[in-house]
Design goal:
Structural class: alpha/beta
Number of helices: 44
Number of strands: 16
Distance between the termini: 66 Å
Strand content: 5-15%
Shape: globular
Radius of gyration: 35 Å
Length: about 1000
């Protein structure tokens, strides 16, 4: 190949063949002529710079019947291509009676794809599956439809088939990688479509079976095998390949090897040769911590004056810092044949050990006589370093207060190392390798508990044992104490201990054994706090959420965010609070209990209630702003309780939704917690009302439902009709989303009565709309549904709530469709869409288009329905509403089924299922029914029946009327199977 040409004006020719054949110079497309001329171009590009003779080209372009002037035609095409290439015309060369195109590496998209695929293979062989998957996806992105699209001739047809096969192989490779990195649920949808397009490709069937199995859909996985076996027998007279049959057997046996592979880790140990040997004994039941052991061992194995600081994420006492450090130090002794030093620096106590005293002890241990040890810290440190020069010694500095305490104790010479434990993160310790030690994983915690208590006592009560270690917050010290108490009391059962620890008020008192006590460990840290730090520690522990943002923490503390951050970070440095993420903080569960004990003891009730009231105000005001951005024109925000504190401002809707979904758990926890106060229950109900996206997204719908119920109960106890009415309204909405229509109806009617009694426009307008939805979706009484929805429209108009009116119109269109008024249904749905479009209401516009799509489909306008539903799906994805996304996919699947497009229908149904259960079991059963219909049309009857069996099981469990339809489908399938074998 000739040398690569310099690009013209900084640009270079490039070509595409993985789609229509095109030529480009920079961003400018070059006209490459007629189909025959493009066929010549493609034939030359795909030879990688090699020369193609005229006979080869003629045969490739025209086959066995070339025109008489074929050679002249070739010359004409070549001349036109050179002219089109302009300044780069000499890339097309004539030699040896033929032609070649000589261009730089990577100028053809197929060549780029080959390079990416080769790199992906290397990454996969090296174990980097994520990188391999990324590279394969880049290669697949280069395809732009059918390769060599529209080109005539035998050569183009052969290459087209080759490239299509290669594309499919790459897709299979990427799907295999998907399954190996945990994307099995997402892969099912694509694999379902691919197996429909390529029914005899067994590798795709194998991947589909594995994806279904890993998604918990074993019956469907086995049904895929049965469908494949039947198809191959009927069409080819063959049996499934050995790999497919083996996979079926492994699924039947629930082979543990079918789970996603995990990387094994090992930690090395070596011979011991010590002088001095001051390390404490390592515990015989050391458990887990493999990653930390490996990391620290690797650092110690290559010690070149390195310093390693081990610290818990929150630095909490009892997390196992000393146990880990001692274990690692023992394992690394062979790297330090000249000795290991150890000292407890008492950093968590009231009087930390002075470095001067430690240096004296170390020097004596290293053989320096007392008479030769100087008095000052600097002189002792200098002698210490001189003594260690040329020796390989490890110093384990345990329980350090801060960096200042340990600096004089660092060896500082090549070949030595210091391993430090501390409750504080030593970010100011120069050249330190910082390791944050977290609590144990549940599996590690259970293993530790079992080793202390004994396998015999734990094996029969494994669930109770998990409850015990969870109550201990997976904190090693707490687990060791609980296990030791049980081990010393042979009459106790694991369940009895679990019940004792279930009482949060007594849990810290229960976690005491001999001279070990969790509370005493925490008190050491708390006693060192300044008054402002102690107040922050107490107040921040009041909130129930899993963590807390800096903005919310500042509100609780009644401080600006700058001062609050400085104070909170000091608690992180003191190892009493964890930095969960930038700007977010959390307590360990047991530390939170201790903080609350301190608050009850040292903080007045008025202070505690004021702090929670401030937090509630903050969440309510901010959620109201999110609601207003998401639902412009909706009157709910005008009916919410006033707040004394402002909320956050957002630059756009995306930032507002980011905040809402990030804070969802904390927001709901605050609503439930503050509802117990009669003074705050109304604002708690309004907080739930201002955050319906949490329920409608499907992400936290069950939690939302539980909180709405709890707030309603608290409001009833407080005698607040308005708060209870709103809470019941929200509960009815959540229950309806889950398909629990009987419960939803009961709550809605209660809410309506309460709303009328309190003269509250929120339930009096929203409840009839909700009842209309309930009666329409459950198909109980279309007439009653229409009556409710007309009442809702009137109430929304009276309140001036245009988005609410549009929502009710969309729901009314469903009822009109059910009662054979398709034309009116479409018109009514369009009215709702027009209102929402004029208000700029993205989320509601999406649901309006969803309703319009259903109406259009019901009226026989399937193409228009697909357009509206597709637009709705796009908007719902922008609004991050997975529950509604799933519903849109379901409706798209139904429309495709009506249009006899079974493969597309199955793909949409699978995408709905891949959204991981958003919408509850009832909606999952509906989607499974649709998927079964699509699979049946695709002649995958076994898998279709598996879907219907699962759907029937769900419907029967819920007592849903849809069970009858599924029974009919199963009966028809059985009849068809009997007829086929007769």
């Amino acid at each position: 190949m000739t040398a690569e040409r310099e690009p013209v004006q900084g640009q270079q020719l490039r070509f595409t063949v993985l789609g229509p054949v095109r030529a480009w110079r920079g961003d400018e497309q070059i006209h490459s002529g007629s189909p025959q001329q493009k066929a010549l171009l493609a034939a030359l590009l795909l030879r990688g710079g090699r020369t193609a003779t005229a006979p080869e080209l003629i045969d490739g372009l025209w086959g066995e019947e070339p025109p008489d002037a074929a050679v002249a035609a070739l010359r004409t095409y070549a001349s036109r291509l050179r002219k089109a290439f302009g300044p780069d015309s000499d890339v097309l060369v004539s030699e040896s009676g033929g032609y070649a195109i000589r261009i730089g590496i990577g100028a053809v998209d197929a060549e780029v794809a080959e390079q990416l695929a080769a790199e992906a293979e290397k990454a996969q062989h090296s174990g980097d599956r994520s990188r391999a998957r990324e590279l394969i996806n880049k290669a697949l992105d280069l395809w732009a439809g059918e390769p060599l699209a529209g080109l005539p001739g035998p050569y183009a047809e052969t290459q087209r088939m080759r490239l299509e096969e290669w594309h499919l192989v790459l897709v299979e490779t990427r799907l295999d990688l998907d399954l190996n990195v945990g994307f099995h649920a997402e892969a099912v949808s694509e694999l379902t479509a691919l197996t429909a397009q390529h029914p005899f490709r067994e590798r795709l069937r194998e991947l589909l079976m594995l994806a279904l199995y890993r998604s918990g859909r074993q019956a469907e996985a086995l049904a895929v095998y049965n469908d494949t076996r039947r198809l191959l027998a009927e069409e080819l007279g063959a049996d499934p390949c050995a790999e497919l049959s083996e996979l079926q057997q492994r699924i039947l046996q629930a082979d543990a090897g079918l789970a996603a592979p995990a990387d094994a880790r090992t930690s090395g140990t070596g011979p011991t040769f010590v002088r001095p040997a001051q390390l404490p004994a390592t515990v015989s039941d050391f458990t887990g911590r493999d990653a930390f052991v490996d990391e620290l061992s690797d650092q110690l194995a290559t010690a070149e004056g390195r310093v390693m600081a081990v610290s818990a994420v929150a630095g909490i006492g009892g997390v196992g810092k000393t146990t880990l450090a001692v274990h690692v130090a023992h394992a690394a002794r062979h790297h330090f044949p000249d000795g290991q030093l150890y000292v407890d620096l008492q950093g968590a106590g009231p009087v930390p050990t002075e470095p001067q005293a430690v240096l004296g002890a170390f020097l004596r241990a290293l053989g320096i006589p007392d008479s030769a040890i100087p008095k000052g810290v600097e002189e002792r440190a200098a002698l210490y370093r001189s003594t260690l020069d040329g020796r390989r010694v490890l110093a384990l500095l345990d329980n350090a207060r801060d960096a200042a305490q340990v600096r004089p104790l660092l060896p500082g010479t090549e070949g030595c190392a210091a391993l430090i434990t501390s409750r504080a993160r030593m970010v100011d310790l120069e050249s330190a390798h910082l390791v944050d030690l977290d609590v144990m994983s549940p599996e590690e915690a259970l293993v530790l508990f079992t080793r202390i208590v004994g396998e015999e006592r734990v094996s029969s009560e494994r669930d109770a044992a998990m409850d015990v270690v969870a109550a201990c917050g997976f904190l090693p010290l707490a687990i060791r104490i609980a296990a030791s108490r049980l081990a010393s009391r042979r009459t106790w059962t694991v369940s009895f201990l679990a019940r004792k620890l279930a009482d949060e008020r007594r849990r810290l008192d229960e976690l005491r054994a001999g001279d070990l006590a969790v509370r005493a460990t925490f008190e050491l840290g708390y006693g060192q706090l300044e008054p402002q730090q102690a107040r922050a520690f107490r107040l921040l522990g009041l909130a129930d959420g899993p963590d807390i943002s800096l903005a919310a923490a500042a509100v609780i503390l009644d401080m600006d965010t700058f001062d609050a951050e400085e104070l909170i970070e000091s608690l992180v440095d003191a190892s009493l609070l964890e930095s969960a993420a930038p700007g977010r903080y959390r307590y360990h569960d047991l530390v939170r209990l201790y903080a609350r004990d301190c608050a009850e003891r040292d903080q007045s009730m008025a202070d505690r209630e004021a702090a929670m009231s401030r937090l509630l105000d903050f969440y309510l005001a901010t959620a109201a702003r999110v609601y207003a951005l998401e639902r412009p024109g909706d009157r709910l925000v005008d009916h919410l309780a006033p707040t004394e504190r402002p909320g956050l401002d957002f630059p756009d809707q995306g930032a507002a939704l980011d905040w809402l979904f990030t804070e969802a758990d904390c927001l709901l926890a605050c609503a439930q917690q503050t509802a117990s106060s009669a003074a705050m229950v109304r604002r708690a109900a309004d907080l739930v009302a201002a955050a319906p996206d949490i329920a409608e997204s499907g992400v936290n719908s069950r939690r939302y439902e539980a909180v709405a119920a709890a707030v309603g109960d608290a409001a009833r106890k407080a005698g607040d009709l308005q708060a209870e009415g709103r809470a019941r309204t929200l509960l009815a909405h959540a229950l309806s989303l889950a398909g629990r229509y009987d419960d939803a109806e009961e709550q809605a009617k209660t809410a309506w009565e309460l709303g009328r009694a309190a003269e509250d426009p929120v339930p009096t307008s929203r409840v009839p709309n909700q009842l209309g939805i309930i009666f329409a979706l459950s198909r109980r009484s279309p007439e009653q549904a229409e009556k409710y929805l007309l009442q809702a429209i009137e109430a929304f108009r009276k309140d001036g709530n245009r988005p609410g009116e549009a929502s009710a119109l969309g729901n009314l269109s469903r009822v009109l469709l059910e009662t054979d008024r398709a034309h009116s249904a479409v018109d009514t749905a369009r009215q709702g869409v027009q209102i929402l479009g004029s208000l700029g209401h993205v989320m509601r516009l999406a649901t309006g288009k969803y309703q319009l799509g259903i109406a259009l489909s019901g009226s026989g306008k399937h193409a228009e329905a697909l357009t509206e539903l597709t637009e709705a799906l796009t908007l719902l994805q922008e609004c991050r509403q997975p529950l509604w996304e799933g519903m849109a996919h379901q409706r798209l699947a139904e429309v495709h089924l009506t249009m006899h497009q079974a493969a597309q229908a199955a793909a949409h149904a699978e995408q709905a299922l891949a959204l991981r259960g958003h919408g509850g079991e009832w909606r999952r059963a509906i989607v499974l029914t649709v998927l079964g219909k699509a699979l049946s049309q695709l002649r995958q009857s076994g898998r279709a029946e598996a879907c219907w069996q699962e759907a029937l099981s769900i419907h029967e469990r819920l007592g849903a009327a849809e069970a009858d339809e599924v029974r009919r489908l199963l009966a028809a399938s059985a009849t068809a199977a009997t007829a086929a074998t007769a």
